[in-house]
Amino acid sequence: MAELKERLSRVASVINSKAIHFVDIPVHGNVGDILIMSGTLKFLSDYNIRRVQTSAYFNYSPAWAEVDVPIVFQGGGNLGDLYDGPQEIRERIISRCLTNRIVILPQTIHFSSPEKYEACCALFSKHPDLHIFVRDTKSANLARRMTPNVYLSPDMAHQLWPMKTEKRPQFDQLAFKRTDDERSNSARVDESHSIDWPALIGWHGTAVRIYAKIGKLSLLRKSKFAANIHSEIWCRYAKYLESLSASHFSRYKKVETDRLHGHILSSLLGIENVVGDNSYGKNGGYICCWTRSSNCVTLAEHTEHGKD
Fold first, then answer.
1. What is the rounded (10 degree) CA torsion for 85, 43, 269, 196?
2. Which of 2, 184, 240, 267 is the most buried (most CB within 10 A)?
3. CA–CA distances in Å: residue 2 to residues 109, 149, 241
4. pLDDT (tens digit, 9 = 90+) per residue, 246-270?
Protein backbone atom coordinates (compact mmCIF):
# COMPACT_ATOMS: atom_id res chain seq x y z
CA MET A 1 0.00 0.00 0.00
CA ALA A 2 2.85 2.40 0.79
CA GLU A 3 4.45 1.69 -2.60
CA LEU A 4 1.18 2.34 -4.46
CA LYS A 5 0.72 5.59 -2.57
CA GLU A 6 4.21 6.66 -3.60
CA ARG A 7 3.43 5.93 -7.26
CA LEU A 8 0.69 8.57 -7.16
CA SER A 9 3.32 11.31 -6.89
CA ARG A 10 3.47 11.38 -10.68
CA VAL A 11 -0.01 12.91 -10.72
CA ALA A 12 1.35 16.09 -9.12
CA SER A 13 4.07 16.47 -11.75
CA VAL A 14 1.52 16.10 -14.57
CA ILE A 15 -0.90 18.60 -13.01
CA ASN A 16 2.09 20.96 -12.65
CA SER A 17 0.07 23.72 -10.99
CA LYS A 18 -0.72 24.95 -7.50
CA ALA A 19 -4.36 25.63 -8.40
CA ILE A 20 -6.96 23.52 -10.24
CA HIS A 21 -10.62 23.09 -11.04
CA PHE A 22 -11.69 19.69 -9.66
CA VAL A 23 -14.68 18.34 -11.58
CA ASP A 24 -17.03 15.33 -11.29
CA ILE A 25 -16.92 14.78 -7.56
CA PRO A 26 -19.33 11.91 -6.75
CA VAL A 27 -22.47 13.22 -5.04
CA HIS A 28 -24.07 9.81 -4.61
CA GLY A 29 -24.03 6.86 -2.25
CA ASN A 30 -21.36 4.73 -3.92
CA VAL A 31 -18.70 4.78 -1.22
CA GLY A 32 -16.15 3.40 -3.68
CA ASP A 33 -16.29 6.68 -5.58
CA ILE A 34 -16.25 8.55 -2.27
CA LEU A 35 -13.02 6.74 -1.33
CA ILE A 36 -11.50 7.88 -4.64
CA MET A 37 -12.58 11.46 -3.95
CA SER A 38 -11.33 11.33 -0.37
CA GLY A 39 -7.95 10.02 -1.53
CA THR A 40 -7.80 12.77 -4.15
CA LEU A 41 -8.62 15.49 -1.63
CA LYS A 42 -5.89 14.20 0.66
CA PHE A 43 -3.49 14.04 -2.29
CA LEU A 44 -4.20 17.65 -3.25
CA SER A 45 -3.71 18.73 0.36
CA ASP A 46 -0.48 16.73 0.73
CA TYR A 47 0.95 18.30 -2.43
CA ASN A 48 -0.34 21.82 -1.66
CA ILE A 49 -2.58 22.00 -4.72
CA ARG A 50 -5.51 24.39 -4.18
CA ARG A 51 -9.01 23.70 -5.48
CA VAL A 52 -10.21 26.98 -6.99
CA GLN A 53 -13.43 25.31 -8.09
CA THR A 54 -14.94 22.00 -6.99
CA SER A 55 -18.06 20.70 -8.73
CA ALA A 56 -20.08 17.61 -9.51
CA TYR A 57 -20.67 16.78 -13.17
CA PHE A 58 -24.13 18.39 -13.00
CA ASN A 59 -23.10 21.83 -11.70
CA TYR A 60 -19.99 22.80 -13.62
CA SER A 61 -19.84 25.05 -16.67
CA PRO A 62 -16.94 25.13 -19.17
CA ALA A 63 -17.41 28.91 -19.13
CA TRP A 64 -15.89 28.91 -15.64
CA ALA A 65 -12.49 27.75 -16.93
CA GLU A 66 -9.63 30.12 -16.05
CA VAL A 67 -6.45 30.85 -17.99
CA ASP A 68 -3.54 28.60 -16.96
CA VAL A 69 -5.65 26.67 -14.41
CA PRO A 70 -5.80 22.92 -15.19
CA ILE A 71 -9.15 21.15 -15.11
CA VAL A 72 -8.80 17.87 -13.22
CA PHE A 73 -11.45 15.15 -13.43
CA GLN A 74 -12.22 12.67 -10.66
CA GLY A 75 -10.95 9.15 -11.31
CA GLY A 76 -12.99 5.97 -11.17
CA GLY A 77 -14.77 3.73 -13.64
CA ASN A 78 -17.06 6.12 -15.52
CA LEU A 79 -14.97 6.93 -18.60
CA GLY A 80 -16.98 5.27 -21.34
CA ASP A 81 -20.61 4.72 -22.18
CA LEU A 82 -21.93 3.24 -18.93
CA TYR A 83 -22.60 6.56 -17.18
CA ASP A 84 -23.88 9.37 -19.40
CA GLY A 85 -23.59 12.40 -17.08
CA PRO A 86 -19.87 12.27 -16.23
CA GLN A 87 -18.95 11.37 -19.81
CA GLU A 88 -21.01 14.23 -21.23
CA ILE A 89 -19.35 16.88 -19.04
CA ARG A 90 -15.90 15.50 -19.91
CA GLU A 91 -16.67 15.72 -23.61
CA ARG A 92 -18.15 19.21 -23.27
CA ILE A 93 -15.13 20.57 -21.38
CA ILE A 94 -12.53 18.84 -23.56
CA SER A 95 -14.17 20.19 -26.73
CA ARG A 96 -14.47 23.77 -25.42
CA CYS A 97 -11.49 24.34 -23.11
CA LEU A 98 -8.70 23.82 -25.64
CA THR A 99 -6.27 26.19 -23.90
CA ASN A 100 -6.53 24.50 -20.49
CA ARG A 101 -4.50 21.48 -19.46
CA ILE A 102 -6.97 18.62 -18.85
CA VAL A 103 -6.01 15.82 -16.45
CA ILE A 104 -8.21 12.77 -15.99
CA LEU A 105 -7.29 10.96 -12.78
CA PRO A 106 -6.93 7.13 -12.76
CA GLN A 107 -9.81 5.56 -14.65
CA THR A 108 -10.94 2.19 -15.92
CA ILE A 109 -12.20 2.74 -19.49
CA HIS A 110 -15.07 0.70 -20.90
CA PHE A 111 -17.20 1.17 -24.01
CA SER A 112 -19.98 -1.26 -24.92
CA SER A 113 -20.52 0.59 -28.22
CA PRO A 114 -17.64 0.69 -30.75
CA GLU A 115 -19.28 3.72 -32.37
CA LYS A 116 -19.26 5.69 -29.10
CA TYR A 117 -15.62 4.73 -28.51
CA GLU A 118 -14.65 6.00 -31.97
CA ALA A 119 -16.56 9.24 -31.41
CA CYS A 120 -14.86 9.75 -28.04
CA CYS A 121 -11.41 9.13 -29.54
CA ALA A 122 -12.10 11.61 -32.34
CA LEU A 123 -13.16 14.32 -29.87
CA PHE A 124 -10.48 13.74 -27.22
CA SER A 125 -7.65 13.53 -29.73
CA LYS A 126 -8.30 17.13 -30.85
CA HIS A 127 -7.28 18.52 -27.45
CA PRO A 128 -3.59 19.57 -27.46
CA ASP A 129 -2.97 19.12 -23.72
CA LEU A 130 -5.03 16.16 -22.52
CA HIS A 131 -3.54 13.73 -19.96
CA ILE A 132 -5.22 10.47 -18.97
CA PHE A 133 -4.26 8.27 -16.02
CA VAL A 134 -5.55 4.70 -16.24
CA ARG A 135 -5.75 1.86 -13.73
CA ASP A 136 -5.00 -1.14 -15.99
CA THR A 137 -3.31 -2.10 -19.25
CA LYS A 138 -6.54 -2.65 -21.19
CA SER A 139 -7.62 0.92 -20.40
CA ALA A 140 -4.16 2.18 -21.38
CA ASN A 141 -4.53 0.62 -24.82
CA LEU A 142 -7.94 2.25 -25.26
CA ALA A 143 -6.68 5.64 -24.06
CA ARG A 144 -3.71 5.81 -26.47
CA ARG A 145 -6.10 6.57 -29.32
CA MET A 146 -7.42 9.54 -27.32
CA THR A 147 -4.09 11.17 -26.47
CA PRO A 148 -0.37 10.34 -26.47
CA ASN A 149 -0.25 11.38 -22.78
CA VAL A 150 -1.34 8.16 -21.05
CA TYR A 151 -0.05 7.03 -17.65
CA LEU A 152 -0.60 3.71 -15.86
CA SER A 153 -1.43 4.46 -12.22
CA PRO A 154 -3.02 2.94 -9.12
CA ASP A 155 -6.32 4.27 -7.80
CA MET A 156 -6.33 7.61 -5.94
CA ALA A 157 -7.82 5.92 -2.85
CA HIS A 158 -4.33 4.58 -2.05
CA GLN A 159 -3.42 8.10 -0.89
CA LEU A 160 -5.50 7.29 2.23
CA TRP A 161 -2.84 4.85 3.42
CA PRO A 162 -2.37 4.24 6.32
CA MET A 163 -6.08 3.94 7.16
CA LYS A 164 -7.03 3.15 10.73
CA THR A 165 -10.25 2.59 12.62
CA GLU A 166 -11.05 1.95 16.27
CA LYS A 167 -13.24 -1.05 15.44
CA ARG A 168 -11.87 -4.57 15.98
CA PRO A 169 -12.85 -7.83 14.19
CA GLN A 170 -15.93 -9.46 15.69
CA PHE A 171 -17.12 -11.66 12.81
CA ASP A 172 -15.47 -14.10 10.42
CA GLN A 173 -16.49 -13.00 6.90
CA LEU A 174 -18.30 -10.16 5.13
CA ALA A 175 -19.94 -10.91 1.78
CA PHE A 176 -19.83 -7.56 -0.01
CA LYS A 177 -21.40 -7.99 -3.46
CA ARG A 178 -22.64 -5.72 -6.26
CA THR A 179 -26.36 -5.36 -6.82
CA ASP A 180 -26.10 -2.94 -9.78
CA ASP A 181 -25.61 -3.22 -13.55
CA GLU A 182 -21.88 -3.97 -13.21
CA ARG A 183 -22.56 -7.28 -11.47
CA SER A 184 -21.01 -10.20 -13.35
CA ASN A 185 -23.48 -12.48 -15.11
CA SER A 186 -21.69 -15.46 -13.55
CA ALA A 187 -21.94 -14.08 -10.02
CA ARG A 188 -24.69 -15.42 -7.80
CA VAL A 189 -25.72 -13.03 -5.07
CA ASP A 190 -27.69 -14.15 -2.05
CA GLU A 191 -28.90 -10.72 -0.99
CA SER A 192 -30.10 -12.07 2.36
CA HIS A 193 -26.49 -12.89 3.28
CA SER A 194 -24.58 -10.12 1.50
CA ILE A 195 -24.44 -6.34 1.54
CA ASP A 196 -23.69 -3.55 -0.96
CA TRP A 197 -23.04 0.18 -0.52
CA PRO A 198 -26.76 1.19 -0.42
CA ALA A 199 -27.51 -1.23 2.43
CA LEU A 200 -24.31 -0.33 4.26
CA ILE A 201 -25.03 3.42 4.41
CA GLY A 202 -28.75 2.79 5.06
CA TRP A 203 -30.90 5.90 5.56
CA HIS A 204 -27.99 8.13 4.57
CA GLY A 205 -28.77 7.11 0.97
CA THR A 206 -31.99 9.14 1.10
CA ALA A 207 -30.13 12.18 2.45
CA VAL A 208 -27.55 11.82 -0.35
CA ARG A 209 -30.24 11.73 -3.05
CA ILE A 210 -31.90 14.84 -1.63
CA TYR A 211 -28.57 16.67 -1.50
CA ALA A 212 -27.82 15.71 -5.11
CA LYS A 213 -31.19 17.14 -6.19
CA ILE A 214 -30.33 20.39 -4.41
CA GLY A 215 -27.08 20.53 -6.41
CA LYS A 216 -29.05 20.33 -9.65
CA LEU A 217 -31.09 23.44 -8.89
CA SER A 218 -30.68 26.27 -11.37
CA LEU A 219 -28.76 28.52 -8.95
CA LEU A 220 -26.10 25.89 -8.28
CA ARG A 221 -25.68 25.26 -12.00
CA LYS A 222 -25.14 28.94 -12.77
CA SER A 223 -23.17 30.21 -9.77
CA LYS A 224 -19.53 29.18 -9.21
CA PHE A 225 -19.75 30.29 -5.61
CA ALA A 226 -22.93 28.33 -4.87
CA ALA A 227 -21.57 25.21 -6.57
CA ASN A 228 -18.40 25.47 -4.47
CA ILE A 229 -20.35 25.76 -1.21
CA HIS A 230 -22.51 22.77 -2.16
CA SER A 231 -19.39 20.73 -2.93
CA GLU A 232 -17.53 21.65 0.26
CA ILE A 233 -20.47 20.63 2.44
CA TRP A 234 -20.72 17.37 0.52
CA CYS A 235 -17.00 16.61 0.94
CA ARG A 236 -17.39 16.81 4.72
CA TYR A 237 -20.45 14.57 4.75
CA ALA A 238 -18.76 12.11 2.40
CA LYS A 239 -15.85 11.83 4.85
CA TYR A 240 -18.34 10.61 7.46
CA LEU A 241 -19.70 7.98 5.02
CA GLU A 242 -16.12 6.83 4.39
CA SER A 243 -15.53 6.46 8.14
CA LEU A 244 -18.83 4.61 8.56
CA SER A 245 -17.87 2.13 5.84
CA ALA A 246 -14.34 1.59 7.19
CA SER A 247 -15.76 0.88 10.65
CA HIS A 248 -18.18 -1.66 9.20
CA PHE A 249 -15.46 -3.48 7.25
CA SER A 250 -13.18 -3.53 10.29
CA ARG A 251 -15.66 -5.71 12.16
CA TYR A 252 -14.73 -8.65 9.90
CA LYS A 253 -11.63 -10.84 9.63
CA LYS A 254 -12.17 -11.52 5.91
CA VAL A 255 -14.07 -9.90 3.02
CA GLU A 256 -15.42 -11.60 -0.09
CA THR A 257 -16.28 -9.00 -2.74
CA ASP A 258 -16.77 -8.22 -6.41
CA ARG A 259 -16.44 -4.46 -5.87
CA LEU A 260 -13.08 -2.90 -6.67
CA HIS A 261 -13.27 -0.61 -3.66
CA GLY A 262 -14.46 -3.42 -1.46
CA HIS A 263 -11.05 -4.87 -2.33
CA ILE A 264 -9.15 -1.57 -1.96
CA LEU A 265 -10.83 -0.61 1.33
CA SER A 266 -10.13 -4.07 2.75
CA SER A 267 -6.49 -3.81 1.65
CA LEU A 268 -6.08 -0.33 3.15
CA LEU A 269 -7.39 -1.74 6.44
CA GLY A 270 -5.18 -4.85 6.22
CA ILE A 271 -8.16 -7.22 5.97
CA GLU A 272 -7.84 -10.47 4.00
CA ASN A 273 -10.01 -10.23 0.88
CA VAL A 274 -11.12 -12.61 -1.87
CA VAL A 275 -12.07 -10.77 -5.06
CA GLY A 276 -14.28 -11.78 -7.97
CA ASP A 277 -14.77 -9.73 -11.12
CA ASN A 278 -17.42 -7.28 -12.22
CA SER A 279 -19.22 -7.45 -15.57
CA TYR A 280 -16.28 -6.29 -17.71
CA GLY A 281 -13.13 -7.44 -15.91
CA LYS A 282 -12.31 -4.26 -13.98
CA ASN A 283 -11.28 -5.98 -10.76
CA GLY A 284 -9.06 -8.64 -12.30
CA GLY A 285 -7.30 -6.08 -14.48
CA TYR A 286 -6.61 -3.85 -11.50
CA ILE A 287 -5.36 -6.60 -9.21
CA CYS A 288 -3.05 -8.00 -11.89
CA CYS A 289 -1.49 -4.54 -12.29
CA TRP A 290 -1.20 -3.45 -8.68
CA THR A 291 -2.19 -5.65 -5.74
CA ARG A 292 -1.68 -9.27 -6.73
CA SER A 293 1.53 -9.57 -4.71
CA SER A 294 -0.22 -8.57 -1.47
CA ASN A 295 -0.48 -11.43 1.00
CA CYS A 296 -4.02 -10.38 1.97
CA VAL A 297 -5.44 -10.50 -1.60
CA THR A 298 -6.79 -13.57 -3.42
CA LEU A 299 -8.43 -13.64 -6.84
CA ALA A 300 -11.56 -15.79 -6.90
CA GLU A 301 -11.36 -18.81 -9.21
CA HIS A 302 -14.10 -17.49 -11.53
CA THR A 303 -12.17 -14.25 -12.12
CA GLU A 304 -10.90 -14.42 -15.69
CA HIS A 305 -7.71 -12.43 -15.06
CA GLY A 306 -6.80 -14.78 -12.24
CA LYS A 307 -6.03 -17.46 -14.86
CA ASP A 308 -3.44 -15.36 -16.70
1. -10
2. 267
3. 25, 25, 24
4. 999 999 999 999 999 999 999 999 9
Residue count of the chain: 308
- In single-letter form, the type of residue at position 104 comes to I
Q: What is the DSSP letter of 202?
A: T
CA–CA separation, 178 vs 191, rounded Å?
10
Neighbouring residues of 230: CB distance < 8 A, sequence distance ≥ 6: 56, 59, 214, 215, 220
pLDDT, tens digit (0-9, with 9 covering 90-100), for 177-228:
988 877 765 555 445 468 999 999 999 999 999 999 999 998 888 899 999 9
Q: Is domain 2-159 given the CATH code 3.40.50 in the classification? A: yes
**How many Å apart are CA 138 and CA 190, to the nearest integer?**
31
By DSSP bridging, strand 150-152 and strand 171-176 are unpaired
Collapse the DSSP code of 253 into the 3-class scheme (helix H, G, I; strand E, B; otherwise coil) and give the result.
strand
Long-range contacts of 267-272 (CB under 8 A, 24+ apart): 267/1, 267/291, 267/294, 267/296, 267/297, 268/1, 268/157, 268/158, 268/160, 268/161, 268/162, 268/163, 269/163, 269/165, 270/296, 271/296, 272/296, 272/298
CB 177 within 8 A of CB 194: yes
Share of the chain above pLDDT 90, in %: 84
Q: Which of 21, 22, 20 is nearest to 36 (CA)?
A: 22
Q: Please provide residue 215's backbone torsions phi and psi, each rounded to the nearest 5 degrees.
A: -65, -20
Q: Which residues contact 243 (CB under 8 A, 6 or more apart)?
A: 165
